[in-house]
Design brief:
- By secondary structure, this protein is an alpha/beta fold.
- It has 4 domains: 115 residues, Sandwich (Jelly Rolls); 184 residues, FAD/NAD(P)-binding domain, CATH 3.50.50; 129 residues, FAD/NAD(P)-binding domain (3-Layer(bba) Sandwich); 78 residues, Enolase-like, domain 1.
- The protein is built from 11 helices and 37 strands.
- The chain has a 5-stranded antiparallel sheet, with no helix packed on it. Strands 14-13-12-18-30 form a 5-stranded parallel sheet. Strands 20-27-21-22-23 form a 5-stranded parallel sheet, with helices on one face.
- Strand 21, helix 6 and strand 22 form a beta-alpha-beta unit.
- The termini are far apart.
């Protein structure tokens, strides 16, 4: 009668042999790790409880494959100590004592007799394949910082950073500002936006730190086998996976969005392409009045390029600012010559017909949303040489499609940045949706520099066994028209707003108050006050509205 082990051995195709004492990892699952080259002399499954120890005397068996089907094991064999997890195996020489100890909740060993071979994938005998393998998908700010923090924290395993940009990881805020307006064209190699220290990303330094860069795009994930499929068709197995893909800029499926003069802005290459286009343009149309759209509008003004902004909503920076501050910023842009159209949808982007000298290259077909249903919507055209679509990002990683591990809000994670649906999966940065059942929104996803920076540390700590609850008061900034605007917390248009100072007349702070507590603050050219606003927001303390509105009472005093 065939045993389960016999069937496993017979079902797996032959593959590369390994030497005694060598270890390998099977990306296809632990139950498919080995096959006998000839007769299986002995086969055995063994189930262990936590901390249960099993000793075998020297010479009890011949050469033996030990593979982990479930759980984790400490193994003393061949004069060495190993820790193996599900999917790993070792070939033990004969006449060596063996001790097996389960270190998980329970464990299952599969052991086969002599003349065994292993299923090998991307195997390099010089590499320590037995070490835990963490794969980070997304080589931007958050993903790159996770790698740096893992190395800094002394992570002893292997790290693979997957991303199709052939650049060192970098920070993005400057791409819509300084990278567009600087006198000379910037290069990443000489730029401070590369994640410091830049020497970390040198090939020799990565090799010394056991970090591998894979310049490819992940296209699929098999959760059961913990295996990524890359765009080239190659496969990559892992023990734990960090999703750091950020967001993909949306084009709104606007007809004509793929035309050569129509831009999206997310990467260094996108920024350089837009920079070059602006220097050859006599007009710019921006679709979307969020942070990116309005920052680029400000940059284009600095370059002397006339700008039209088209926004479907009724406010600029509606996700970031309370209405009173949106109105102030709209006035500032219009006063500087930016033409802003609110309540407008874009129907199509067409090439201009029968262009005369000096005519714009494209025509943006627009429809003004009717104020009342009885009114017919007004249609009009906006001519432009260059067009930027800046209507937000899609944070559902395409490679996770069909896995149930991601949705429209990105990847759901708990307060330790780990998926509640797959304990080996973590998310960081723009793509991480931190669940909070007690909040009105059910969770929080932050598209900010500070979140990418600090959440990366939290993920690295969790991966090295030092998980701490990650709680970050939202904070972002934007520089527009010579103004520094910082936002703490999450303003809601329903909140009461207390102004300290007058917008447009020097430094100003707008504090959003809900149920007697400061829940958010907008600081215009008042960055020194930020730490006090953050304390008020984080503490959720009750405040006296009269004192809050009185500029003679400092925020430092209120936050004490």
């Amino acid at each position: 009668m065939n045993t389960r082990a016999d069937n496993l051995a017979n079902d797996i195709a032959p593959c590369t042999s390994v030497e005694a004492g060598e270890r390998w990892r099977d990306p296809h699952a632990a139950s498919q790790t080995m096959r006998a080259q000839g007769a299986l002399l002995t086969t055995e499954f063994a189930v262990f409880k936590p901390s249960e120890v099993h000793d075998e005397p020297a010479g009890a068996r011949g050469e033996e494959v030990v593979a982990i089907l479930e759980g984790q094991f400490d193994i003393d064999a061949a004069g060495e100590h190993y820790r193996l997890v599900a999917g790993e195996a070792i070939l033990i020489p004969p006449r060596e004592p063996r001790r097996f100890t389960c270190v998980g909740t329970k464990g299952v060993l599969y052991r086969a007799g002599t003349r065994a071979c292993g299923r090998v994938m991307n195997h390099d005998p010089s590499e320590p394949d037995h070490l835990e393998h963490v794969v980070v998908v997304g080589a931007g700010h958050a993903g790159g910082r996770v790698v740096q923090q893992l190395v800094s924290l002394g992570f002893a395993g292997r790290i693979t950073l997957v991303g199709d940009e052939r650049h060192s990881p970098y920070e993005r805020p400057a791409l819509s500002k300084e990278w567009l307006t600087s006198e000379t064209e910037p290069t990443l190699a000489a730029s401070p936006i590369v994640l410091a220290p830049a020497a970390f990303w040198e090939p020799s330094a990565l090799r010394d730190a056991r970090v591998e860069r894979v310049y490819e795009r992940a296209v699929a994930l098999d959760p059961a086998r913990r295996m990524l499929t890359l765009a080239s068709g190659k496969h990559l197995s892992f023990d734990r996976l960090v999703v750091a893909t950020g967001g993909a800029p949306r084009d709104g499926a606007i007809p004509g969005a793929k035309r050569p003069g129509v831009h999206l802005l997310r990467t260094v290459d996108d920024s350089l392409a837009l920079r070059r286009a602006l220097r050859e343009s006599r007009s710019l149309a921006i679709i979307g009045a969020g942070v990116i759209g309005m920052e680029v509008a400000s940059s284009a003004l600095d370059l002397g390029v006339p700008v039209t902004v088209l926004e479907a909503g009724d406010r600029v920076l509606a996700r970031c600012l309370p209405p009173v501050m949106s109105e102030w910023l709209l006035r500032e842009h219009r006063a500087r010559g930016v033409h802003v159209e609110l309540g407008v949808t874009v129907e199509a982007i067409d090439e201009a017909e029968e262009r005369a000298s000096g005519d714009a290259r494209y025509v943006v077909r627009c429809k003004a949303l009717a104020a009342e249903q009885a009114q017919a919507p007004e249609t009009f055209d906006v001519a432009a040489d260059t067009i930027l679509i800046a209507i937000g990002v899609d944070c559902a990683p395409a490679f996770l499609a069909g896995t149930g591990l991601a949705g429209r809000q990105g990847v759901d994670v708990d307060e330790t940045c780990r998926s509640p649906n797959a304990p080996w999966l973590y998310a960081v940065g723009d793509v991480a949706h931190v669940l909070d059942r007690a909040s009105e929104r059910g969770g929080l996803r932050q598209e900010t520099w500070r979140n990418a920076e600090n959440q990366a540390l939290a993920v690295a700590q969790a991966l090295t066994g030092h998980a701490q609850p990650y709680r970050e008061t939202p904070w972002m900034w934007t520089d527009q028209l010579g103004n520094n605007i910082q936002v703490v917390g999450q303003p809601d248009p329903r909140d009461e707003v207390v102004l300290r100072g007058e917008p447009g007349a020097g430094p100003c702070t707008a504090l959003s108050v809900r149920d007697g507590r400061v829940v958010a603050g907008v600081l215009v050219n008042a960055g020194r006050e930020r730490r006090f606003v953050e304390k008020l927001v984080a503490s959720a303390m009750q405040v006296d509205i009269g004192r809050l509105a009185d500029p003679r009472t400092s925020l430092k005093e209120l936050a004490a």
